[in-house]
Design goal:
This is YafY family transcriptional regulator. By secondary structure, the chain is α+β, with helices and mostly antiparallel strands. The chain contains ten helices and eleven strands. Strand 9 and strand 10 form a beta hairpin. The protein is extended, with a radius of gyration of 26 Å.
């Protein structure tokens, strides 16, 4: 993303007197024009970047300028490093930036830095192969950089299929899933699209003007229960399946039932997501109440049993 590249450019310039724009463009896999726009952005931010013309010219920092390493402690740099590592499975940009952050730490403190950075590891990538997701993320990032629209076939959570043209604004990871937030030209408003539901994703040549997003109306900050009817669902796990409950819920949520098992009270909107979540436990979980949720789960489980009983 742009902020990663800007920080990386500053770190490169700190280590070298002059760098050619073409070399920076090749290094970050963007156009020379994009590099010059980045240089202008850095200048507006107060970084004294200058361009020298002529055969021995290039891009550099005003002589005597340096980045005060005391602005960020080793612990703070390690936290940034860990945050970038959590996303590195999806893009090589973060790996390059991680290398540059490591290079800022003096050799005398590198071992301590590695120790701090390894105390907590967050890996947000899913198990197994996720090449298709990486391709979608890369294409959307390109569209974000170039401020052009993307189009794709989309299937909603209700199974409705449409073709969308969207002005991309933000890539969002929420609940271990990637989403694109942008202005949908079909609906004429901002929408949140889940990447796995996209098919035939392409980058279009239609440019758009990016607007400021209202920070108080961003949909990923909303809990669905704030706008939907929430029900309390009581779920029981027997003694033989209590380990499954312990794996999924915090101990403070589990109530001992007196027979070696647990009950847990869930508060969610009663929708297809909730039914899918409850069915994911298989026979280990039994919904005790409310009655209509228990009845609907029984019907769904019976439908599954019929489907497998008649399969060849």
């Amino acid at each position: 993303m742009k902020i990663d590249r800007l920080l990386s450019i500053v770190i490169v310039l700190l280590g070298r007197r002059l760098v050619q724009a073409k070399e920076l463009a090749d290094m970050f896999e963007v156009s020379v024009r994009t590099i010059y726009r980045d240089i202008e952005t850095l200048s507006q931010a107060g970084i004294p970047v200058v361009t020298y013309q002529g055969g021995g010219g290039g891009i550099g920092l005003i002589e005597g300028y340096r980045l005060d390493r005391n602005v960020l402690t080793d612990g703070e740099l390690a936290q940034i490093f860990s945050a970038l590592r959590s996303l590195s499975a999806y893009t090589s940009d973060h790996e390059r930036l991680m290398e540059k952050i490591s290079s800022v730490v003096p050799p005398s403190r590198s071992q301590q830095f590695r120790s701090i950075a390894s105390r907590q590891i967050v890996d947000l990538s899913p198990w197994g192969h996720h090449g298709a997701l990486q391709q979608k993320l890369a294409l959307i990032k390109e569209a974000l950089e170039e401020s052009v629209t993307v189009s794709f076939a989309y299937v909603s959570a209700e199974g409705t299929a449409t073709v969308r043209s969207v002005e991309p604004y933000t890539l969002v990871m929420k609940g271990q899933s990637w989403y694109l937030y942008g202005c949908c030209r079909l609906r004429g408003e901002f929408r949140l699209f889940k990447l796995p539901r996209m098919k035939d994703l392409i980058k279009e040549n239609t440019a758009y003007t990016r607007l400021d997003l209202p920070s108080d109306e961003l949909p990923w900050n909303d809990y669905p229960g704030d706008h939907a009817a929430v029900s309390e669902v009581i779920v029981h796990f027997s003694a033989g399946d209590k380990h499954i409950a312990e794996d999924r819920f915090d101990c403070s949520e589990l109530q001992v039932d007196g027979c070696g098992g647990y009950t847990v009270a869930l508060r969610y909107p009663v929708d297809e997501w909730l039914y899918g979540f409850l069915l994911s436990f298989g026979p280990a979980a039994e919904v005790l109440e409310p009655a209509h949720v228990r009845r609907r789960l029984g019907e769904m489980a019976a439908d599954v049993a019929i489907k497998y009983a008649t399969s060849t």
